[in-house]
Design a protein that fits this description.
Elements (H helix, E strand, L loop, with lengths): L41 H28 L4 H28 L6 H13 L3 H22 L1 H11 L4 E6 L2 E6 L8 E4 L8 E6 L2 E4 L1 H4 L5 E3 L4 E2 L4 E2 L4 E7 L5 H14 L3 H28 L2 H10 L3 H20 L2 E3 L2 H7 L4 E4 L1 H5 L5 E7 L5 H12 L5 H12 L8 E6 L3 E6 L2 E6 L1 H6 L12 H5 L3 E7 L2 E9 L6 H10 L4 E5 L4 H11 L3 E3 L4 H11 L5 E5 L5 H6 L2 E4 L6 H6 L2 E3 L6 H35 L5 H20 L6 H7 L1
Parallel strand pairs: 11-18, 11-20, 18-19, 20-21, 21-22
Antiparallel strand pairs: 1-2, 1-3, 3-9, 4-7, 4-9, 5-6, 5-8, 10-22, 12-17, 13-14, 14-15, 15-16, 16-17
Length: 663
């Protein structure tokens, strides 16, 4: 993992108090700010801190009880308060000393100095109560702000450590680490998949909610992909291993969440930039207060209330809650800056096939040229397209299989993205692709009967087949618009999106029918990949632009947008790598949900910052003028921090109504 991973759980710390995961935090008492190491000691340390708080709190409470009910035991009450204060102050003092030893000087020293000042004045109960409230706040911070880290731990637990490997038909239990690519394993009902693979025998239903966020299980058959961490629900199946370890989809999901937590929003970077000046200014203000009023109580209160935990936590707590909510819904945000940027998007550019439509094409018509049989046209096209992963290729292969056609071997296969494919079949040179591309090669497509208006009206996409520079026919493909596409466009408009555009490589008639049905603002058809990029660049002159595509054929356009959103990225390395945000499901309602989550997170961050600043400013004023005492200051500090955390926690449940409606 990268350095600077501490900052995903910031509280009283800044960049000057970072932990490198390659050099875990020193064993012993954890940082008072609540940051955790990655060495598996987070929960034990949390219990140690809780034990310290309880033990010290008992001594402090005992001192008060002795003072009130047994006044003759005043000395015992003082001893009890002294012991309690020492127990509670040790974690704070140790961390401050460590910081000074490392040459760092930040907010932990404010708290430590306030406790020391209380001790120097003989105010042991005061010192104990200050330490008690600060440590109690820290425990709650560490439990609340580390929610996304714990969700990652839960993801890791989804992957079994053992697998049932098939060797010569016999089932042998092996460690998952011992599996190799192309090994065959058996997964029984109720078991989680330990690897990514493809089903080679059996039928089942799989719960993929851990990755896609969809509560409805997916039916799986021979040839379908399954993913590590998902659950086999019904049938016993045999799976061939295709991805292991860090290459699995679940591992990529985990890495993306970690990367998002480690990055910082612009607001956090501004706070970090000026944080090193904050502590010296507070010390100067404390010195002035002491010089003017000469009361240590005011100085102690000032130092306690000036520790801006609420301000530092304002953004990280909201961001972590947002990332956790998004990941639960199958929205993977690589960089938290993209979460903030999503709230400012004003234009969406959508690909058509596989995005606004289902992308599951079927052959609607075969139109061979004169002297060519339909079976011959299908045989040549399917034999060549079997090497492509394009939706039209899959449709051709499906038809060929249903017709029980034995495909032929080819050579010199080449795919030109957005245009078509070429190959050698039986010594003949074939080109299969869009009309504009074949015409650019000098081929005459008028030798075949053109698609009729009736066929155009049915929104068929046309692919032409040419043999030795002579067009031998065309094949029409039909697609279906997703049922949620129209509602998604309407929801985006309601959220303030000003421009929704459809950009596709398909024919004008097909693009217009889909675009008009969905009521998009602009329709651009017959686009090559470079044309899509050019359109996005033009849109960026007036708006912040989000590009939505399948991540396979639209990688250049996704990369060119201010925000790239890859649909249906489950199992797709290309989709995950090409986009800013990867949706592990093809459900389009996740897009307006992303915008809603982004806008709400920005609003909550602003609320947190304003509230945190008000608490600190008002607290400093009250402490300087002697209106607030140290104990009340410690309580106000705790209350302000907890309010920030609870306000941010509202984001965690964002979008639950979507998954409920999907059930």
């Amino acid at each position: 993992m990268k350095e600077n991973t501490h900052n995903h759980n910031e509280s009283c710390c800044s960049d000057s108090h970072e932990h490198n995961h390659e050099e875990p935090m020193t064993k012993g008492i954890a940082c008072p700010c609540g940051c955790q190491a990655s060495d598996g000691t987070a929960h034990p340390r949390g219990m140690v801190k809780l034990g310290v708080v309880i033990l010290g709190g008992i001594f402090i409470i005992n001192s008060f009880l002795l003072q009130v009910f047994f006044q003759e035991l005043d000395f015992a009450a003082e001893i009890s308060s002294f012991v309690g204060a020492i127990i509670l102050a040790i974690p704070i003092m140790v961390t401050a000393i460590k910081d000074l030893y490392k040459g760092t000087f930040y907010m932990n020293e404010l708290v430590a100095l306030a406790v020391l000042a209380a001790f120097s004045g003989g105010e042991f109960r005061e010192a104990g109560i200050i330490s008690f409230f600060l440590l109690l706040t820290i425990i709650i911070e560490s439990r609340t702000a580390s929610g996304a880290q714990r969700s990652i731990e839960e993801l890791i637990k989804l992957t079994p450590t053992n697998a049932n490997k098939l060797v010569d038909g016999n089932e042998i239990e092996v460690n998952v680490l011992d599996l190799k690519l192309d090994d065959i394993i058996r997964v029984k009902p109720g078991e989680n998949f330990p690897i990514d693979g493809v089903i080679i025998d059996g039928l089942t239903t799989v719960n993929q909610a851990s990755i896609t966020g969809e509560s409805i299980p997916a039916d799986k058959k021979i040839g379908d992909d399954v993913f590590a961490g998902t659950q086999n629900m019904t049938g016993s199946i045999e799976v061939k291993v295709t991805k292991l370890g860090r290459d699995t989809t679940l591992s990529k999901v985990k890495d993306m969440i970690i990367d998002a937590e480690e990055t910082k929003t612009p607001v956090v970077r501004i706070i970090d930039k000026y944080s090193t000046y904050y502590t010296p200014v507070i010390f100067m203000l404390a010195a002035v207060t002491w010089g003017v009023f000469g009361e240590m109580s005011r100085v102690i209160t000032l130092l306690v209330i000036a520790c801006p935990c609420a301000i530092v936590l304002a953004t990280p707590s909201a961001v972590v809650a947002s990332i956790a909510a998004a990941a639960r819904l199958g929205i993977l945000i690589k960089n938290v800056r993209d979460l903030e940027r999503a709230s400012k998007i004003k234009s969406f550019v959508f690909d058509k096939t596989g995005t606004l439509t289902k992308g599951i094409l079927s052959v609607g018509r075969l139109m061979p040229a004169e002297g060519i049989e339909p079976a011959e046209l299908l045989l040549s096209a399917a034999s060549i397209e079997k090497h492509s992963n394009h939706p039209t290729a899959k449709a051709l292969l499906k038809l060929a299989q249903s017709a029980e056609i034995n495909l032929l071997d080819i050579s010199d296969f080449e795919e030109i993205p957005g245009k078509g494919v070429t190959a050698i079949l039986n010594g003949d040179e074939y080109s299969i692709g869009r009309a504009a591309w074949l015409e650019s090669l000098g081929l005459d497509i008028s030798t075949t009967e053109m698609p009729s208006k009736e066929n155009e009206g049915s929104s068929m996409s046309i692919v032409y087949v040419a043999k030795n520079s002579i067009v031998t026919g065309w094949i029409g493909f039909s697609d279906t618009v997703r049922k949620e596409s129209s509602a998604m466009i309407a929801d985006l408009k309601a959220l303030g999106i000003q421009q929704c555009s459809l950009v596709t490589g398909d024919r004008e008639s097909v693009a217009n029918k889909v675009g008009n049905l969905l009521k998009v603002d602009e329709i651009v058809s017959e686009c090559l990949p470079e044309d899509k990029v050019a359109f996005v660049e033009k849109q960026k002159e007036n708006y912040l632009v989000a590009v939505v595509g399948d991540g396979v054929n639209d990688a250049p356009a996704l990369a060119s947008g201010d925000l790239g959103i890859a649909m249906g990225a489950i199992g797709s390395d290309v989709a995950i790598n090409s986009a800013s945000i990867a949706l592990m499901t093809n459900n389009l309602n996740r897009i307006p949900l992303l915008i809603q989550l982004s806008k709400k997170s920005v609003n909550i961050i602003n609320q947190n910052l304003i509230a945190g600043l008000l608490f600190v400013i008002i607290g400093i004023i009250l402490s300087v003028f002697g209106i607030m005492n140290p104990i009340l200051g410690a309580m106000l500090h705790s209350v302000s921090t907890l309010l920030i955390l609870f306000n941010s926690a509202r984001l965690v449940r964002m979008g639950e109504e979507y998954t409920v409606n999907e059930e």
